[in-house]
Write a sequence for this structure.
């Protein structure tokens, strides 16, 4: 994945221009930072795309019988309270919070922070940048955030007002806690499904 940064001082981008930029470049993943910088990312490679699809499948299968919320893929961007517009690899929002949005808000960049986000670090992603983005999710209201570094088999769990939890190995199990109550993510099962 190739990433380009455009500082706000070069091209100031308001919400309408940002939406137009995204609509005119549907093959790219585009985010706006809190500082107004534009981050343009190329489509993912095959490995990352494979992992993303497997992750979506696990979460959607779990949610199908529970119907407690809605999952979103990486093509969905959320407007955060710090003015950033970010797009995680996977996001979850409780139904009551989703239903509190107007139809217009649902059709653009929902002005709400997901309850849960998951990011899968690709080889080209800086770990420091990925960790900073995870912290930003938590600071804007996310209740639980996971960062997967599948190249090194390291998994980071972020929660509000709690220490960062780091686990490593291929036999790790992560839990949805009170955000995704009853959800268990077995890395051993996930990794063996090639």
């Amino acid at each position: 994945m190739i990433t380009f940064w455009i500082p706000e001082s070069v091209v100031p981008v308001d919400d309408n221009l940002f939406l137009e930029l995204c609509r005119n470049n549907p093959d790219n993943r585009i985010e706006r930072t809190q500082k107004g910088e534009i981050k343009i990312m190329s489509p993912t490679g095959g490995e990352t795309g494979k992992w993303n699809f497997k992750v979506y499948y696990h979460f959607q299968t779990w949610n199908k019988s529970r119907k407690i919320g809605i999952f979103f893929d990486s093509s969905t961007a959320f407007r955060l309270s710090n003015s950033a517009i970010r797009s995680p690899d996977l996001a979850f929002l409780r139904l009551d919070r989703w239903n509190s949005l107007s139809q217009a808000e649902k059709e653009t960049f929902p002005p709400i922070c997901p309850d849960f986000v998951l990011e899968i670090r690709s080889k080209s992603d800086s770990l420091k940048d990925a960790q900073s983005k995870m912290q930003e999710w938590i600071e804007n209201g996310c209740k639980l955030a996971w960062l997967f570094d599948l190249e090194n088999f390291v998994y980071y769990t972020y929660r509000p007002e709690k220490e960062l939890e780091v686990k490593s190995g291929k036999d790790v199990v992560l839990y949805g806690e009170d955000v995704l109550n009853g959800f268990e993510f077995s890395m051993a099962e996930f990794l063996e499904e090639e």
Q: What stands out?
A: Helices lie at 15-24, 46-66, 95-99, 103-107, 127-139, 187-192. The chain is about 30% helix and 25% strand. The radius of gyration is 16 Å.
